[in-house]
Amino acid sequence: MRSFVIGCLSVGLVSFAVAGSVQAQENNTPPKGFTALYNGKDLSGWHGEETMDPRNWKKMSDEDRTKKLAADAANAKMHWRVDSNGDLVNDGQGAYLTTDKPYGDIELFIDWKIVAKGDSGVYLRATPQVQIWDPSDPDQLRNNADKGSGGLWNNTPGRPGKDPLVVADNKIGEWNRFHIVQLGDRTTIHLNGKLIVDGASLENYWDRKQPLFPTGPIQLQTHGREIRWRNLFIREIPADEANAKLRGKDPEGFVAVFNGKDLTGWAGAVDNYQVEEGAIMCKPGKGGALHTKDEYADFIARVEFQLPPAGNNGLAIRYPGQGDPAYAGMCELQVLDTEHENYKGLDPRQAHGSAYGMAASHRGYLRPTGQWNYQQVTVQGSAIKVELNGVTILETDLSKITEYMANSPHPGKDLKKGFFGFAGHGDPVKFRNVSIKKL
To answer: What pLDDT is stored for residue 51 in this prediction?
Structure first.
């Protein structure tokens, strides 16, 4: 989606290289563990959709949405077809072909073939785009087409992933194969077996102040010239696998502060917590701050957590060892089952990942209750960054906060160092794989 279309780095980030993983099969037959998005016969599972901000779909009345989908379906029927070889063919015009189902964390294979000066793309979570074009097209040299296909073209200039790492396109008229892994907003792409995007964040084109949508459909872009598609295979990545891939192996400098067996190295409300199946858990009905014996100034913390229904806890940041972590410490980063009906009237500054009472996080990125989540917190000076399941949900400078929830001051927010811990609130929230790197 470039401007002339008609109508329309995280510290410790690991590489999501997938060399040696399963290879896509041919003839629209998926490999083991994958589902065919396209059956080689018809457009089952797909619909036509003129590209637009997905949020606008939700604002439509049911009647208007139905009318638009009908019009888009008629439009798509004129421009999309299945040929005798089972290729999915678009003449370069019309509505984008869009999966009926939305997707979050995925592994995706897509084969494509373009003609000279061809131009297209793949939208992930309804967001542009993994670029496809002719690297030799002189008309597109101004847009860096010579760098090849596969870049996240709509990312801000200079941001990782906008341009592919290498040119990996086959000759015009030959088939190409994308292998895409999407985890949170992190996108890794291989083109014809070569790594071209390495865990770069796909920006939210529709609103760059917001993170990438948690889920959304896959869309095949139409852009003026014929393009063919085949072998579209998808695998939804389960939470535990996504967490493991996002975290990878902790880089040098990280130290495990929980041994998975007991509370050695911890202080504070030790009697109100227990270790269960390799995780620290606040005892039901108990509470208080459990904290490390070591203090930290600037640091990165990595932790996995699991929420029970309506579960409430928090990460104590630069906690002085006494008092309420949300006020006596630099802050409490909420750990909360935010979308539970118990919290309908929640102040935005109380949502999961928020600096409690001071700075609101972006919502909608928690995994379903009962699944493990992976979170990384970076604290440097007065700045805090929270990344949840591969998406940055909070990035703020507490020194610039002047308005507080309920006008309650936070006297500890300017602390330069303190303990790291958990601010128990009586619910059996679990934490595991806790490691910290001093900066």
So the answer is: 84
CATH assignment at residue 303: 2.60.120.560
- Taking the CA of residue 97 as centre, how many other CA atoms within 13 Å lie in the half-sphere pointing to its CB? 28
Q: What is the mean pLDDT of each run of 10 residues along the chain (439 residues)?
A: 33 44 81 96 94 90 94 95 95 96 98 97 97 96 96 96 98 97 98 98 97 97 96 98 97 97 97 97 96 98 98 98 97 97 95 98 97 98 98 98 95 97 96 98
Residue with the two structure tokens 């070591």: 294
| Lookup: tokens for 357 | 């009472």
Please report, for residues 82, 95, 223, the alpha-carbon distance to residue 79 in angstroms, rounded to integers and kept in the order given: 11, 8, 12
Q: Does 49 fall in a domain?
A: yes
93 with 167, same domain: the answer is yes
Whether the CA torsion 51, 207, 121, 367 is positive or negative: it is negative
What is the residue-wise DSSP string for 2-56? Answer: -TT-S----TTPPP---TTSPPP-STT-PPTT-EES--SSS-TTEEEE----HHH
Angle in degrees, CA 12, 17, 22, rounded to 5: 145
**Tally of domains within the chain:** 2
Residue 328, both tokens:
């006596």
Residues 155 and 285 in one domain: no
Q: Residue 209 burial (CB < 10 Å; 0-12/13-18/19+)? A: exposed
pLDDT attached to residue 58:
87
Judgement on whether residues 221 and 271 belong to the same structural domain of the protein = no
Asked whether residue 126 falls in the same domain as residue 271, the answer is no
Identify the helix (H) or strand (E) that includes residue 418: strand 418-424
Do 339 and 214 meet the contact criterion of CB atoms below 8 Å apart? no
Same structural domain for residues 151 and 205? Answer: yes
| Alpha-carbon span 16 to 198, nearest angstrom | 6
Could you give phi then psi for residue 145, rounded to 5 degrees? -60, -25
Q: Kindly give the residue spans of alpha helices, DSSP state H, lying in 237-381.
A: 239-247, 325-328
> Can you give the residue range of the structural domain that contains 430?
252-438
pLDDT of residue 26: 87
Residue 2 lies inside a defined structural domain of this protein: no
Residue that finishes a domain, picked among 207, 237, 267? 237
Closest to 334 (Cα-Cα) out of 288, 285, 386, 295: 386
Task: Indicate the pTM of the whole model.
Answer: 0.93
Residue with tokens 């269960």: 276
Helix (H, G, I), strand (E, B) or coil at 246: helix
- Which residues in 126-224 belong to E strands, given as ranges? 127-133, 176-183, 186-191, 194-201, 219-220
The pairing of strands 88-90 and 227-236 is antiparallel
